[in-house]
Amino acid sequence: MTNQYDVAIAGAGIVGMSTALWAQRRGLKAVICDANSPGSGTTFGSACTMATYACVPINSPSVITSLPSLLFSKQSPLTINYLYALKHWRWMLSFLLNCRQSRVDAIGAELGALLRQADAGLDPLIEDIKAEDLMVEEDCLYVWSTKKGFDGAAKGNDLRRRQGVEMEELNASDVRALEPALQMPIYRGLRFRGTRFILHPQKLVERMQRRFAELGGVTLLSSVNSVTFNDVGTTANLADGTSVNAGHFVVAAGAHSKSIDGAGLEKVPLGVERGYHVTYANHRNKLSRPVGWAEAGLYATPMELGLRFAGTVELDDLNAPPTLERGAYLRRRATEMFGSLDGDADDWLGYRPTLPDALPVIGPSTVSDRIIHAFGHQHIGLTLGGLTGRMVTDIVTGKERTPNVSGIGSQRFHQG
Ligand SMILES: Cc1cc2nc3c(=O)[nH]c(=O)nc-3n(C[C@H](O)[C@H](O)[C@H](O)COP(=O)(O)OP(=O)(O)OC[C@H]3O[C@@H](n4cnc5c(N)ncnc54)[C@H](O)[C@@H]3O)c2cc1C
């Protein structure tokens, strides 16, 4: 078998396209395979924040105490389909075990180590593709409407401080001075210093793909069904009946990564946190920055397509139909935030790839070190995509992977 490429990548989201560009920067010949257009998956519909402060996992002790209501509510920011929970009880159990405070602190430390390097992973790519115009340097805000909510977030906010997140506590009038259009009750805010957001994540990935092509990279419009490997390389078998030989194969298909046979994913408990958005085309000028409303579990972000309300978590099957109440929930919260909003608004459902310990999988497969896993970025894949691309190419080129985070290999699921 002769390798046509050094690296073949499955999935042209932010993670896969960043990997493709980093591979080129390191002098590797790369091919990327995806039946869908670049950046059109979960990346497209995100809340657009470069959330370098988001080291607090969704796992928290409060999930355990509020579990009964989560199983039966459609009106809370986090909902769990109880039939799904029963069917995937091992995943749920592992998720709940990771809600213990000791685990939350340990996960937060690993996420913090990754997030501190996130800008260093993305910025060289932004410069390469000349995408500075898509980035807005404006500190993101979190807002709490109640004392109870703010006090309940104290441990999480302490964790951020310990991880070096620079943030400033604001009172209600400080928040309203920054964002006068907000109408919901405000108790406290946090301003995350030095953060920024992306005006159009899909455009960012499209520009990456164009630059990749200019530099000789190959994009194949087909998904990967399976991969085989030997000592010198890999063969990816594509849905269109063709195959691609490469020295390394990278699984970067987000929430769909387990659909690729032969990649050693049988024991990796990749789950999905479904999330929704509604984007009001007319109202982008209501905000100057993303505002996360903690009690509502959403962000309002003034992105290129309008004012986007994105968030909520639904633990349910990847293939289940959209839950209509979720869109209605976002619209109701949007009205509470800004009063009535007129004009067109789209509704979207997307799939966050999530492991029960909220950490991504970035590293060689246990079946072969020629297959590299790069998925599971849950709520922060847009933020960590660039860095993941750099880490994957560190591995492929035999450099030490930086940052050297210990808990993100797939072998963590093979122990015991
Ligand atoms: C509502 C919501 C808001 C969010 N907000 C933010 C935010 O503000 N900041 C942040 O950092 N993150 C955010 N996220 C998370 C972020 O969007 C994801 O973590 C990230 O987009 C995942 O990127 P990806 O490249 O892994 O996956 P995707 O963008 O889903 O890309 C995966 C690609 O793989 C392709 N594919 C699937 N199967 C195959 C196959 N067999 N072969 C080849 N290709 C395949 C798909 O077509 C797709 O193009 C949010 C997510 C949601 C749902």
Task: Walk me through the structure.
By secondary structure, the chain is α/β, with parallel strands linked by helices. 33% of the residues lie in helices and 25% in strands. The strands form 3 sheets. Strands 4, 6, 7, 8, 14, 15, 16, 17 and 18 form a 9-stranded mixed β-sheet that branches. α1 packs parallel to α14 (381-396) and α8 (118-129) packs across α14 (381-396). The protein is globular and about 65 Å long.
Bound small molecules, which ones? Answer: flavin-adenine dinucleotide
What percentage of the residues does DSSP assign to strands (E)? Answer: 25-35%
Please count the helical segments.
14
Low-confidence blocks of residues: none
Distance between the termini: 36 Å
Number of strands: 20
Mean pLDDT: 95
What is the makeup of the main sheet? 9 strands, mixed
CATH architecture of the largest domain, please?
2-Layer Sandwich
What top-tier CATH class of the largest domain fits best? Alpha Beta
Output the structural class.
alpha/beta
Q: Could you name the CATH topology of the largest domain?
A: D-Amino Acid Oxidase, Chain A, domain 2
What is the overall shape?
globular
SSE layout and pairing:
Elements: E1 5-10, H1 14-25, E2 30-33, H2 42-45, E3 49-50, H3 61-65, H4 67-72, E4 78-80, H5 82-87, H6 89-97, H7 101-115, H8 118-129, E5 135-136, E6 140-144, H9 147-152, H10 154-162, E7 167-171, H11 172-178, E8 188-192, E9 196-198, H12 201-214, E10 218-220, E11 224-229, E12 234-238, E13 243-251, E14 271-280, E15 291-293, E16 298-303, E17 306-315, H13 324-338, E18 345-354, E19 361-364, E20 371-375, H14 381-396
Parallel strand pairs: 1-2, 1-13, 2-10, 4-17, 6-15, 13-20
Antiparallel strand pairs: 3-9, 5-9, 6-8, 7-8, 11-12, 12-13, 14-17, 14-18, 15-16, 16-17, 19-20
Helix pairs in contact: 1-12, 1-14, 8-12, 8-14
Bound molecules: flavin-adenine dinucleotide.
Residues 10-16, 33-34, 36, 40-43, 45-49, 51, 223-224, 252-254, 256, 259-260, 275, 277, 310-311, 350, 352-353, 375, 377, 379-383 line the site of flavin-adenine dinucleotide.
